[in-house]
Design a protein that fits this description.
With 323 residues, this protein is of the alpha/beta class. The chain is built from eleven helices and nine strands. Strand 2, helix 3 and strand 3 form a beta-alpha-beta unit.
């Protein structure tokens, strides 16, 4: 009997992208922590002999230091996916030609650095749309990983609207629109398993970020760190319960990470107000180690591309509607 599968991914969101989402005009200086954080991530995963899918922002690859960080990720055997060119969490609200440009420019930047075209795409802020899926199918992508089936998405939008730093320049230049998508209530009812979606350009696989079966609450690492700020035992109990629920429901879990999951309180003061960033680095790394160990218990942890290939039949007869 084959070993059950699980997958691991990391959205390589840079410091400037977080600052822009918060409406902080200092994002224009393009501050970056990739050169500092990437070796931590690679060492942490390497010690556990795990591979993951890294979704990379094309604009970061225009700077040598950040491009070298992504080269190191690819050289370590990890999958490189497209996270768009400009990391706009409102990508789905753009005209379709601008969505195409965001996908194409990110793809071209990745190809220039790694020598290979990405097979997968994840939209910033989970801002997927049926039209965007069609663009990906047109360009030959194997899968999209932008679906976040949770009821918490609207609450996340409200949090950003309330907490966003406002400035005259940011509002005038459109740095931070009044709303970012994250996910919708309708998304919360979509499948948790990889599935094929029909588009005018042909079928494309959709690989959701796993949420707690039935409850549809988040189980990604940032949310677990947020719980651990209250109680690390609570966070691990919640994670283990979610994994048991996945087994019972036949869901192969796909865990999402971010660079902030490898940084502790005070290491990047601009990020201290973000969820999970009140934990010191050492306890956060212990939590992450426990989370990954539990994920790998009885499962083969791999990339999303391999997860999709194992989960979906070759026939597109299992397609569902994207609308």
């Amino acid at each position: 009997m084959p070993t059950p599968i699980a997958s691991l991914s990391l959205d390589l969101d840079n410091l400037w992208a977080y600052l822009r989402s918060a409406g902080d005009p200092s994002w224009r200086d393009r501050p970056s922590y990739l050169a500092e954080v990437t070796p931590r991530v690679l060492d942490f995963l390497g010690e556990r002999e795990m591979i993951a899918s890294f979704f990379v922002v094309g604009d970061d690859l225009t700077r040598d230091e950040d491009a070298r960080a992504v080269e190191a990720i690819a050289a370590a055997g990890h999958e490189i996916g497209n996270h768009s060119h400009s990391h706009l969490p409102w990508l789905d609200s753009l005209p379709i030609d601008e969505q195409r440009e965001e996908v194409a420019r990110g793809e071209e930047a990745i190809r220039a650095v790694t020598g290979a075209s990405p097979a997968g795409f994840r939209a910033p802020g989970f801002a997927w749309s049926p039209e965007l899926l069609g663009v990906l199918a047109e360009r030959g992508y194997a899968y999209d990983a932008s679906l976040f089936p949770t009821f918490v998405g609207p609450l996340a939008r409200l949090y950003c609207k309330v907490s966003r730093i406002r400035s005259t320049d940011a509002e005038r230049d459109g740095d931070a629109p009044p709303e970012q998508r994250f996910s919708s209530l309708r998304d919360a009812l979509r499948p948790l398993r990889p599935h094929s979606v029909a588009t005018p350009a042909g079928p494309i696989a959709v690989a959701p970020v796993t949420t707690f079966p039935l409850l549809r609450s988040p189980i990604h690492m940032t949310y677990l760190s947020f719980l651990a700020e209250k109680s690390p035992k609570l966070a691990m109990a919640y994670w283990r319960t979610a994994l048991r629920a996945c087994r019972l429901r036949g869901v192969a879990p796909s865990l999402l990470l971010h660079p902030l999951d490898f940084m502790g309180a005070g290491e990047c003061p601009a990020m201290d107000r973000f969820p999970g960033m009140r934990l010191a680095r050492d306890p956060k790394m212990r939590l992450l180690g426990g989370v990954l160990d539990a994920l790998a218990d009885g499962r083969r942890v791999t990339t999303i591309a391999q997860h999709v290939a194992a989960a979906l039949p070759a026939s597109p007869s299992h397609s569902v509607a994207a609308a």
